[in-house]
Amino acid sequence: MKISHAWLQSYFKEELPSPSEIESLLSLHSFEIESVEKVENDTVYDIDVLPNRAHDCLSHEGIARELSLFLPLTFITLNIQEDYKTCKPTLSVEVRDIERCRRYMMQELINVKVAPSPIWLVQRLEAIGQRSINNIVDIANFVMFDTGNPVHVFDREHIQGPSLLIERSTPGTQLTTLDVHIITLDESMLVISDQQKPLVIAGIKGGKDAGVTDATSHIVLEVANFEPVSTRATSLALGIRTESSKRYENDFTPERAPQTLFKLRSLLMEVAGGEETLVSECIDVYPNPSNLRSVEISLSGLAQHIGMKYTYAEVVNIFKKLQWEVKDADTENLESENEDADNVMIITIPHDRLDIVISEDVYEEVARIYGYEKIPSLLPTEVQQEDVHTASSVLESLVRRALTARGFCEIVSYTFLAEGDVYVQNPIADDKGALRNALALKFSEAREKNVYHAPLFGTEVIRQFEIGTVYTEKGEERHLAMSVDPVTKRATKKLGDLSTLLDQEWNSLCTALDIPYQTGVFSQNVYECLLDETTISSDQRALLNFQTHTQESENLSFKQFSVYPFMTRDISLGIPFGTEIKAIESVIRSHGGDSLIRVDCIDEFTRDDIFAVAFRVVFQSQHGSLTDQEISFTMKNIEDACRRNLGWNIR
Amino acid sequence: MTTRNEKLEHEGRMHPLSQVIEELSSIFASMGFVVQVGPHIEDEWHNFDALNVPKNHPARDMQDTLFVKGQLETVLRTHTSNVQIRYMENHKPPIKIIAPGLVFRQEATDATHEIQFHQIEGLCVDRGISLAHLKGTIENFLKQLFGNSVEFRFRPGYFPFVEPGVEVDLKFQGRWLELMGAGMVHPQVFKNVGIDSSVYSGFAFGMGVDRLAMMRFNIPDVRLFYQGDMRLHNALKQF
């Protein structure tokens, strides 16, 4: 929510501290500040009001009240002597749904003048990103951003008949909004209607028909309170979310209406009124007034919950700043200076603070206003709880460590794919509509990609595994998937049948970990088996304590890899006996240019009296795709350099 | 004769997320927490209602949920807090658990958002547990993870299942970064699981593992974790 510094200043007699100090105070004691931005002669804060404070803080007044808790400033309340010519209202108000319309205040102003807004008003609205329209519409907007209570202004000339009805819509009725969208309403939606048609979707958006125009002179002011849940449902159903609906959704007290109407009326009189303006009597339909709530707390309860002692004076001082009335339950302890006395206090919570319901809510207020930085750091006393680590995490940790020790890399793949046993009602994409019922499919896709990238890693075998949940008709299971993929001929020859190899690997792993072996399934070159936590003995569970984590991870840092394709070239050389492989690598490297990223010896053999080696050279650029031509040129350089060594022959 | 250049094998490595989860688990285990897990497909009671998130409350806007087709009031858990509820339903205090695991959200993916990611949550319930104990536990944890000079702070936060609720910020490369949400277990949550809040109190905390792993290894994009792409492992170099 955007909050203007100059607007906040209007609430205080003394000058506010600098924006950076305000940012720091609010973020440590109240809300996160998303940004602080200079706008012409003003500074605008983007404040992320916490959901439980949206009742009272989605407004400049709310934020100003927060600031007054931490700053020794004098809060100014609007004090205008009202001396208007009055008249009888021309409209009556009938609330037909008192559950959804908790309060409706209506007042008419006759003989007002629509005009451009004064500069102060334009500046206030523009600072927070609102466009100025005319003095009347602008004041209505201003009052919402100021008090947090949305208001509406009708043109009386376009209200048919003698009354305003607050009722559920007739199904299928249409309404044209101020921004000229035609909306079809249903019977779940609350509207403000005249005798013929709906004029406003209650708390959400006004209609074009009874809106203020340049010709308007007789206006009707609405300050109401609509129920949050149904307002939100209507807003969601229509896909219309406004500054007004946002405030109603979050709920605020109907008790705010009179001050809001007062502010709306007096500001309208200031910018659009005159000698001849008449102010009607106010109509206030408020069948079930809110009751004040009180909460009982004790100093010992506070100290216990927060973990530090606050004195009676400190606590009372915080409540005073909050304007919360405090009574001591035990009158004998009244004004007790005795530190040891456990004062039980009964606090009357102002209507605005819908979030304060139980004593813990009050403890939070004390702790955050006093400062979380003042709370000490304590460790809970050691207790011997009966339980140990859950079996599945123990088993998985064992398997994970054993497999990485055997040269396997752990991957994590997506849970979502196109088909499975369990489907999602609201998937983010059609091909992510189901939960995997086996690891194999996504795992195998990853395997293929990794085999393709093998030259980048300089390996001849890709070994990978994944431990993850699969979702079947039977429920959730934890699975292990493993694969071993040779990427060179000699590796293929060496590894033999992969199904047998993986089965042996799993079998020997089970033996090493002392867990029962159950054969897995081999398909798509993936060996997948169930990790059955019930096979872990209680002795094994008790032994594993997660305290043997490796230190190696601490010094690892990510180096961005190139997203461009790589190219490989093989080079075979006949060389004299005794030539160091490293020496040849070094020659290749120093003539390979900037895009050479790897040189790996992939073969060597001796035939008759010739010793031969083969290298794979990998090229990749951080900046773009390489061309065949570029690489051929580089390879020629490498070959020429090799030939300059006595006895090296390119084969 | 030359030495044969044997490069048949690569080095085995855990996934960065597993490395972080094992590291966090080991730190919390050293403070007496035990690791617990729970289901990914969860009923709304354990994912929302028991955690004091009422139906139709705008707080449910904060996490856009994936719902399971054809199963009433069933979701893919949006946090591992369901483990806390299930654990408290079946165990008496003292309780000291951590719950690492996969969670899901219905949201557009980008460099910092994924529809699947990992969380780790902690819960401590006993007689006399206070916000100061939460602070001490977090401080101990952060010092073990980032060293003794680590700087952190508490700020007001809101989660329906705790009161007070705090955000924990960590000073990282000169800036304050949101690291976790935490607070004192709300009495209504205790009531929902049958623990007497006049006798016991507790704290809970939760953090994103992916974000922590990104910070730890300097990884720029959360999506890299879930591609199964070993270029990720290969790009983690000793410095």
H/E series of chain B, N to C? HEEHEHEEHEEEHEHHE
Structural class of chain B: alpha+beta
User: Largest interface by residue count?
Assistant: A-B, 121 and 106 residues
Terminal Cα span of chain A: 72 Å
Number of helices of chain B: 7
Most strands sheet of chain B? 7 strands, mixed
Number of β-strand runs of chain A: 32
Q: What number is the mean pLDDT of chain A?
A: 91
Largest sheet of chain A: 6 strands, mixed
Total of helices of chain A = 20
Question: How does the SSE layout of this entry go?
Answer:
The complex is a heterodimer of chains A (651) and B (239).
Chain A: E1 2-4, H1 5-9, H2 19-29, E2 32-39, E3 42-48, H3 54-57, H4 60-70, E4 85-87, E5 92-95, E6 101-110, H5 119-127, H6 135-147, E7 151-155, E8 163-168, E9 174-176, E10 182-184, E11 190-193, E12 198-201, E13 205-206, E14 218-226, H7 228-238, H8 243-249, H9 257-272, E15 278-280, E16 283-285, E17 293-298, H10 299-306, H11 312-321, E18 325-328, E19 344-349, H12 359-370, H13 391-405, E20 409-410, E21 416-417, E22 422-423, E23 434-435, H14 440-452, H15 454-457, E24 461-472, E25 475-486, H16 489-495, H17 498-513, E26 521-523, E27 526-530, H18 538-543, E28 556-558, E29 567-575, H19 581-590, E30 596-607, E31 610-619, H20 628-643, E32 649-650
Parallel strand pairs in A: 4-15, 5-8, 20-24
Antiparallel strand pairs in A: 1-3, 2-3, 6-14, 6-15, 6-16, 7-14, 8-11, 9-10, 11-12, 12-13, 17-19, 18-19, 21-23, 22-23, 24-25, 25-27, 26-27, 29-31, 29-32, 30-31
Chain B: H1 16-30, E1 34-35, E2 41-43, H2 44-47, E3 74-76, H3 81-90, E4 95-104, E5 116-126, H4 131-146, E6 152-156, E7 162-172, E8 175-185, H5 187-193, E9 201-208, H6 209-217, H7 231-234, E10 236-238
Parallel strand pairs in B: 1-4
Antiparallel strand pairs in B: 2-3, 4-5, 5-9, 6-7, 7-8, 8-9
Helix pairs in contact in B: 1-6
